[in-house]
C-alpha cells in the first residue's frame, strides 16, 4: 500500500467519524459502502464489496446509545478490506481482524468526545455576544480539525505500517490455526444476529427469527424470497392481531396527523424553516461531546429562527441561543419532531412578546426547555428502535447477500434506499412538529401508530435475518470417531443433522442472545467466541 492510498483511506475514515449532514454520513459511510470504496482506492472494488458483505452480519443491530460507540464498524471495514486485498488474508481471518479493529479503534471516539468539550466552551463565548458565525466556524472548521488529529493520523499509520506486517504473519499459519480462524469467522456473525433479536425480538416475535432460519435451511433460498415471505407473514400477523376498536390501517394514524389542521398562528418564512431543518441535519451530531452532547447542534439549529423572530433585538437572540446551549441528545430523524416543536414554541413566544402579553402568561424559557428535555428520551427510544434496530438491519440484511457475491450495486442501492427513507421520515416529523406543536408529540406517543409500524417491520426483519443467519453463522462438529480399521464416523452427521440442519449455528445465536440479555457486553461476548474458536477450533473439535 502506498502512502497516498493510506492517506486517502484515512480521510475516508475521518469523514465517516464526522456525522455531518445526518443521515448522509451514517448512510454513505456505512460498512458495506466504505468497504467498497476501500476496494476502489486499492484497485479491487469487487473484493472490497465481498469483504463488506461478509463482515456486515457482525454489526447489524449496532446502535450508539446516548452517542456511546461500543465498536467502530467503519474502522473494521477499512482495515479488514485493506488486509484482504493487500496482504491476501482469508475472509475468515478478516472477520477476526474486523472484530479486533472495531473494538480497538472505537476508543478513538471516546477520545474525540472528550476533546470536543473544548468546542462547546468556545461556543459558549460566541453565544455571549450572539456571534453565530463563530458558532458555525466552531462546528464546521475547529471540530473537523480536532477529528483529523484523532482519526486521520492514527489510521494512516495503521494502514501504512501495520497491515502488511500483520498480513505476513497471518499467511504463515499452520492448518490447525487456520481452522481456528475459520471457526471464529463462522461464530462471530452470531453476535450481530443476537443483537438484533435482543433489540427488536420481543418474546412473542422471536419465533419469526427461528422460522426464517429453518426456512432457509430446508429450502436453500436466500434474502429475496425470505423478505417476500416475511412481508406476507407480517401482514397476516397484523390482520389477525388487530383489535376490534382499531379501524386504522398500518399508516392511517400518521396520515391523519399529517392532515390535521394547525391551531397556531405562524409567522416564520418558508426560507427560514428550510434553514432550520438544514442546520439540524448539518450540525446536530457534528461536534457532540461528553459534557453536553448535541447542545451546539441544537443551538445552531434554532439560530435562523431566532434571527427572524427578533431581527432588532439582539438581547432576545442571545437569550434564545443560551437556552439551546443546554444538554441535548436524541435520535435525529424521528427526533426531528423536536426542533419542529421547539421552533413553533419559540415562534409563539415571539408573537406574545410583540403583542405585549404579561410575563405571567408568556411562554417561558423554562417551559421551552422542559418540553425539549421531556421529548428527548421518548423520541430517541422510538427512533433508535424503528430506524437503527429495525429498518437499518432489515435493509442491510437484504442487500448483504448480493454484496457477498461481489455485486457492486448492492452497497450503493442499500445506502441510497436507507437515505431516502430516513430523510423523508425526518422532514415529515419536523414539519408535523412545527405545524401541530406539542399536540403532535402527544398524539404520536399516545396512539398506536408507531407501535404498529415497528411490529410490522420487526417481524419482517426477524424473518429475513433468520434466513441470513442460516447462511452466515456456520459451526459444526468436525471431529470424527474411528470406526473399524479405516472408517470414520461423523458426529455431526450422526447426531446433529438428523435433529435439524444447522442446529448448532442456531444454538450459537441464541447462546449469545442469552448472554447479552443477562447483561453481557459486546466486548466480553466477542472474547468468549474467540476463546471458543481458539480452544475447540485448535483441537479440531469444531469447525465450519
Model description:
Among the domains are: 3-176, no CATH class; 189-246 and 458-543, no CATH class. It is built from 25 helices and four strands. It has helices at 3-16, 24-28, 31-42, 45-55, 73-87, 91-105, 107-115, 117-128, 132-171, 175-187, 189-200, 206-219, 223-240, 252-259, 270-283, 295-309, 314-323, 337-354, 365-404, 409-436, 438-446, 449-472, 491-496, 503-517, 522-538; strands at residues 476-477, 480-483, 487-490, 542-543. A two-stranded antiparallel sheet has the order 1-4. Helix 3 (31-42) runs parallel beside helix 5 (73-87) and helix 18 runs antiparallel to helix 19 (365-404).
Summarize the model shown.
This protein is 72% helix and 2% strand. With 544 residues, it is mainly α.
List the keywords:
PTS_IID_man, two-stranded antiparallel ribbon, phosphotransferase system, membrane, two-stranded antiparallel sheet, 544 residues, globular
Straight-line N-to-C gap: 32 Å
Shape: globular
How would you state the average pLDDT, rounded? 84
Structural class: mainly alpha
Q: What is the count of β-strands?
A: 4
Helix-strand pattern: HHHHHHHHHHHHHHHHHHHHHHEEEHHHE
Low-confidence stretches: none
Helix content: over 70%
Which percent range describes the beta-strand content?
Answer: under 5%
Order of strands side by side in the largest beta sheet? 1-4
Largest sheet: 2 strands, antiparallel
C-alpha Rg (nearest Å): 26 Å
Number of helices: 25
Protein name: PTS mannose transporter subunit IIA
InterPro entries: GatZ_KbaZ_carbometab, PTS_IIC_man, PTS_IID_man
Pfam family, one: EII-Sor
Keywords: Cell membrane, Membrane, Phosphotransferase system, Sugar transport, Transmembrane, Transmembrane helix, Transport
Amino acid at each position: 500500500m502506498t502512502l497516498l492510498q493510506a492517506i486517502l483511506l484515512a480521510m475516508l475514515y475521518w469523514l465517516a467519524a464526522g456525522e455531518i449532514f445526518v443521515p448522509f454520513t451514517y448512510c454513505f459511510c456505512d460498512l458495506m459502502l466504505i468497504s467498497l470504496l476501500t476496494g476502489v482506492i486499492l484497485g479491487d472494488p469487487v473484493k472490497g464489496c465481498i469483504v463488506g458483505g461478509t463482515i456486515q452480519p457482525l454489526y447489524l443491530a449496532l446502535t450508539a446509545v446516548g452517542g456511546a460507540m461500543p465498536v467502530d464498524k467503519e474502522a473494521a471495514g477499512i482495515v479488514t478490506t485493506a488486509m484482504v486485498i493487500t496482504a491476501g488474508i482469508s475472509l475468515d481471518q478478516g472477520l477476526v481482524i474486523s472484530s479486533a479493529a472495531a473494538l480497538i479503534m472505537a476508543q478513538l471516539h471516546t477520545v474525540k468526545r472528550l476533546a470536543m468539550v473544548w468546542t462547546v466552551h468556545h461556543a459558549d463565548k460566541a453565544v455571549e455576544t450572539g456571534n453565530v458565525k463563530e458558532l458555525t466556524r466552531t462546528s464546521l472548521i475547529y471540530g473537523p480539525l480536532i477529528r483529523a488529529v484523532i482519526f486521520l493520523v492514527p489510521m494512516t499509520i495503521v494502514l501504512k505500517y501495520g497491515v502488511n506486517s500483520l498480513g505476513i504473519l497471518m499467511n504463515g499459519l499452520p492448518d490447525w490455526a487456520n481452522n481456528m480462524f475459520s471457526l471464529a469467522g463462522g461464530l462471530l456473525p452470531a453476535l450481530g444476529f443476537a443483537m438484533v433479536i435482543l433489540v427488536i425480538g420481543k418474546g412473542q416475535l422471536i419465533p419469526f427469527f427461528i422460522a426464517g432460519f429453518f426456512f432457509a435451511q430446508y429450502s436453500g433460498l436466500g434474502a429475496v424470497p425470505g423478505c417476500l415471505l416475511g412481508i406476507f407473514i407480517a401482514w397476516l400477523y397484523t390482520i389477525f392481531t388487530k383489535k376490534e376498536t382499531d379501524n386504522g390501517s398500518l399508516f392511517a394514524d400518521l396520515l391523519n396527523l399529517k392532515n390535521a389542521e394547525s391551531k397556531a398562528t405562524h409567522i416564520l418564512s418558508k426560507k427560514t424553516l428550510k434553514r432550520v431543518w438544514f442546520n439540524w441535519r448539518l450540525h446536530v451530531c457534528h461536534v457532540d461531546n461528553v459534557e453536553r452532547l448535541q447542545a451546539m447542534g441544537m443551538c445552531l439549529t434554532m439560530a435562523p429562527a431566532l434571527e427572524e423572530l427578533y431581527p432588532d433585538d439582539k438581547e432576545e437572540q442571545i437569550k434564545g441561543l443560551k437556552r439551546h446551549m443546554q444538554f441535548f441528545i436524541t435520535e435525529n430523524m424521528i427526533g426531528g419532531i423536536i426542533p419542529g416543536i421547539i421552533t413553533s414554541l419559540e415562534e409563539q413566544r415571539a408573537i406574545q412578546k410583540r403583542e405585549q402579553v404579561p410575563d405571567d402568561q408568556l411562554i417561558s424559557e423554562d417551559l421551552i426547555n422542559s418540553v425539549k428535555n421531556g421529548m428527548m428520551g421518548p423520541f430517541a427510544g422510538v427512533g433508535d428502535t424503528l430506524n437503527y434496530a429495525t429498518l437499518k438491519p432489515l435493509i442491510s440484511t437484504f442487500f448483504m447477500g448480493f454484496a457477498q457475491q461481489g455485486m457492486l450495486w448492492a452497497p450503493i442501492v442499500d445506502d441510497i434506499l436507507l437515505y431516502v427513507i430516513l430523510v423523508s421520515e425526518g422532514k415529515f416529523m419536523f414539519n408535523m412538529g412545527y405545524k401541530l406543536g406539542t399536540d403532535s408529540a402527544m398524539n404520536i406517543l399516545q396512539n398506536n401508530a408507531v407501535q404498529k409500524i415497528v411490529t410490522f417491520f420487526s417481524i419482517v426483519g426477524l424473518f429475513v435475518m433468520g434466513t441470513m443467519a442460516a447462511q452466515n453463522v456456520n459451526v459444526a462438529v468436525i471431529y470424527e470417531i474411528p470406526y473399524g480399521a479405516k472408517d470414520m464416523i461423523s458426529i455431526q452427521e450422526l447426531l446433529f443433522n438428523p435433529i435439524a440442519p444447522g442446529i448448532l449455528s442456531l444454538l450459537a445465536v441464541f447462546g449469545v442472545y442469552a448472554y447479552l440479555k443477562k447483561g453481557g457486553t459486546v466486548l466480553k461476548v466477542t472474547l468468549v467466541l474467540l476463546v471458543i474458536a481458539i480452544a475447540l477450533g485448535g483441537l479440531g473439535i469444531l469447525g465450519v
